[in-house]
């Protein structure tokens, strides 16, 4: 076996990777989600800016309470994980005049990101962030990378969006910050267990919106786009060229 092509971008379910043979390469589907996740990321970020999770909670409580918001232009957003998903979201947000700070392990710049930082600088930057977006893969380094300390460092009224993996955020800390009013709202599209169990506390947390993992998957052409990567890699392998979307077993993505 020389090549295994995954139909997902995240490969944490296959870890640890000691089952991979020395001559076997694992590749993922990074990049096939970019159009859909870019649209969803822009929509969800605008919803957090407009405090839609709070509006939905007040609707359920039959409460009429007007909270006027200014335009999104100039609002500061941090995208933790500027890979294919985070980069697609950054491009959409940049076009809507958000000011984007990106977090990348290597710190390489991206045109639509105003400031790119490395993970070790996140805590010092969070006080300037109005909306925190999590788009990173789940690895040993990112497991619960956002906890009570990080959420508390955000300014009062900030919002949180997670469309990476459920395990990158401490849900108990998130619930605590929503309950205290420190965070104005949160939107979650990914969870530790999916489907989210009917008895999960997260269903009924005020100012929290639950999406059933739909941010990146489009029903039209998804498998075809995965097959394009596979076909390209088969040709590259035959020609002795480097493969696209190669997963590093050490990094976990």
Give the gist of this structure:
This protein is α/β, with parallel strands linked by helices. The protein has helices spanning 34-49, 52-60, 84-95, 122-125, 148-153, 171-179, 222-239; strands at 3-5, 25-27, 76-80, 99-103, 115-117, 131-134, 158-162, 183-188, 208-210. The longest helix is centred in the C-terminal third of the chain and has 18 residues, at 222-239.
CATH homologous superfamily title of the largest domain: NAD(P)-binding Rossmann-like Domain
Kindly state the number of beta strands. 9
| Share in helix | 25-40%
Major sheet: arrangement of strands: 5-4-3-6-7-8-9
Structural class: alpha/beta
What name is given to the CATH topology of the largest domain?
Rossmann fold
Tertiary shape: globular
Name of the CATH architecture of the largest domain: 3-Layer(aba) Sandwich
Strand count, sense and closure of the main sheet? 7 strands, parallel
Count of DSSP-assigned helices = 7
Average of pLDDT: 96
Overview of this protein structure:
The protein has two domains: 49 residues, no CATH class; 177 residues, 3-Layer(aba) Sandwich (Rossmann fold), CATH 3.40.50.720. It contains seven helices and nine strands; from the N terminus they run ββααβαββαβαβαββα. The chain has a seven-stranded parallel beta sheet. It has a two-stranded parallel ribbon with strand order 1-2. Helix 6 links the parallel strand 7 and strand 8. It is of the alpha/beta class.
Break the fold down into its secondary structure elements and pairings:
Elements (H helix, E strand, L loop, with lengths): L2 E3 L19 E3 L6 H16 L2 H9 L15 E5 L3 H12 L3 E5 L11 E3 L4 H4 L5 E4 L13 H6 L4 E5 L8 H9 L3 E6 L19 E3 L11 H18 L14
Parallel strand pairs: 1-2, 3-4, 3-6, 4-5, 6-7, 7-8, 8-9
Helix pairs in contact: 1-3
